[in-house]
Amino acid sequence: MVSVRAPGAGGCSLAVLIVILTVLRTHLTHCGNPPAVFLYQWKAECHFGAGGQGMRFLDREFINREEFKYFDSDIGHFVGKTEEGVAQADYYNNDTAYLEKNRAVVETFCRFNYELDKPFTEQRRVPPKVKITPTRSPSLEHQNLLVCIVSGFYPSEGQVKWLRNGVEESRVVYAQLLQNGDWTYRVDAILETVPEHGDTYTCEVEHSSLQQPLRVNWEPETSESGRSKLLTGIVGFMLGVVFIILGLIIYLKNKKGTTQLRIPPNEGK
């Protein structure tokens, strides 16, 4: 038996706890035919909404991926979906003690696991990280793609906006929500625009892990190429100042030494 617990997504999302029992049975024949393989599956599922409301237990059985019988705690009895499943459901529905045991599972199994896992699922909060990546363009007159990368957040619900000078942009394309494999998510918000000098672009993220929206700004003058040119200019200016100071110091030392070595022509006579 393998127990798999799916993380809750918070809000009105559906959390499911699944216990899967898979049995493979191979029947060998003596006729030289390939063996027949049969797949039996049993799934115990717990469904609930925000705050554990509407807790529901499903006990489902499948043969070769076809469901033939299930128990639903909302209706309190077994339901058959095939001829054999109907016969089995009638049999178990006549067993009062077995029915009561299954009805209690919604509390003894579902509610118990919900409370146990809640700090790591429904109550878990991881704040997002935001980075703006512009495409390189030869000049500001060309279309630019500004990509706001929002990553490392949990739960998956949130809102990402692009603002231009404080006004929300409508021409935003959102990439598919991706799972990072560590219970966190990533989404990209892409804005196509023509930046102008003086514009300020803001990627704004709202998430349940944040007390207030997270905002990251981007300006054409402070883009990657702009920053490189600015740094180059600053470095060049500083080197020029250093060389000027060194030259002045050397000049003053040489001038002082020449003055000290000068001897009047009539001294000592």
TrEMBL record:
Q: What domain of life does the UniProt record list for this protein's source?
A: Eukaryota
Any idea which UniProt keywords this protein has?
Answer: Adaptive immunity, Disulfide bond, Glycoprotein, Immunity, Membrane, MHC II, Signal, Transmembrane, Transmembrane helix
Provide the GO biological process annotations. Answer: adaptive immune response; antigen processing and presentation of peptide or polysaccharide antigen via MHC class II
Q: Which residues form the signal peptide?
A: 1-31
Supply the name of the protein. Class II histocompatibility antigen, B-L beta chain-like
* Transmembrane segments annotated in the record for this chain: 230-252
Q: Supply the SMART domains for this chain.
A: IGc1 (SM00407), MHC_II_beta (SM00921)
Which PROSITE patterns does the entry mention? IG_LIKE (PS50835), IG_MHC (PS00290)
